[in-house]
Amino acid sequence: MIDNIIAVLGWEERFIEGLQKNLNEFNSVTLYLIIFDEYESYSSKNLSRIQAICDEKKVKIEKLKLSYKNPAYSWRKLESLVANKLMSTENVILDISTMPRETIWGLLFFLQKNSKQTHYIYHKPLNYGEWLCKEPDRPRLLYKHSGIAEFGRHTALMILTGYDYDRTNQLVRFYEPALTVLGLQKGSQFDNQKRNIEKQHREQCKGTEVNTFEIDFYSGDLGFSVLNEEITKLKSDYNVIVASLGPKISSISIYRIFLKHPEIALTYVPTKEYNKSYSVGIADEAVYGMF
């Protein structure tokens, strides 16, 4: 039985429609709603709507304020949420649909540390906006997940690519790796073949050797076996840093890879601006599983 749902307040249609589906299926729950200060104004309408839905369904809602600009503060708040509010909880579901990857990984870390049965659900949109985000900020390593660097080894940067070429460029410029490995999502979903172009990602990787591989994060194992093979090849010769810019569901596979290979580092690229028309609608079927 699911006791609690954790979600991040979003401004997209799929935030409201997805949570409505969740609450229809899991009705005896507490909703822990994470609100990022920097984007609360984007999402004020959805906040009022979800409050009304919870009132109607008699679902308890607790709000948790975090900050994109202060990851140390946000990390401590997530730790407190799991250690205190969820201490007596057995089963938790993470709705990762509008949740930043840094937040997903932090919650998985604390939930696993406290031996919670963790489920995840991802509501795909019908389509994405013409652009998603602008002005990537300084990349940062995830707390407690910065890897084990061996002296004398070069760095390999694995980027699981998405539609934002500027973030690829930002990662390469910041880490200056000897080798950049681009993991390219397969398939035509969401105009992927027109928007996630290998050549354009390669052009962002000047000054570094570049290798590529294809992966399908919508496959049965969410791309885990392919990722495991690629990481295993790299880690014997390089200090490995991994960044996820592709399908949000890839964050689940990446964290499983980290647990198998804790010597790798996980990095996140914040961005200064998101498109208010980030996505449209919600797909009929969600991606659901147990971590």
Radius of gyration, in Å, reads 19 Å
CATH topology of the largest domain: Rossmann fold
Q: Treating each run of at least 4 consecutive H or I residues as one helix, how many helices?
A: 9
Count of extended strands: 16
Helix percent reads: 25-40%
Q: What coarse outline follows from CA principal-axis ratios?
A: globular
Unreliable spans are none
Q: SSE string, helix = H, strand = E?
A: EHEHEHEHEEEEEHEHHEHEHEEEE
From the helix content, strand content and strand pairing, which structural class follows? alpha/beta
Distance between the termini: 15 Å
- What's the CATH class of the largest domain, please? Alpha Beta
How many structurally independent domains?
2
Q: Mean pLDDT, as a whole number?
A: 91
CATH architecture of the largest domain: 3-Layer(aba) Sandwich
Q: Tell me about the biggest sheet?
A: 6 strands, mixed
What fraction of the residues are assigned to beta strands by DSSP? 25-35%
The main sheet orders its strands as 3-2-1-4-5-16
The oligomeric state of the chains shown is single chain
Structural write-up:
This protein has helices spanning 13-25, 44-57, 71-85, 101-113, 165-175, 192-195, 198-202, 224-235, 250-260; strands at 4-8, 30-36, 60-66, 91-95, 117-122, 127-128, 133-136, 140-146, 154-160, 179-185, 209-215, 238-244, 265-268, 271-274, 279-280, 287-290. It has 291 residues and is of the alpha/beta class. The chain is globular. The model has no long low-confidence stretch (mean pLDDT 91). Helix 1 (13-25) runs parallel beside helix 2 (44-57), helix 3 (71-85) packs parallel to helix 4 and helix 8 (224-235) packs across helix 9 (250-260). Strand 2 (30-36), helix 2 and strand 3 form a beta-alpha-beta unit. The two termini are 15 Å apart. The protein is 34% helix and 29% strand. The chain contains 9 helices and 16 strands. The strands form 4 sheets. It has a 6-stranded mixed beta sheet, sandwiched between helices. It folds into 2 domains: 4-127 and 280-290, Rossmann fold; 133-274, Rossmann fold.
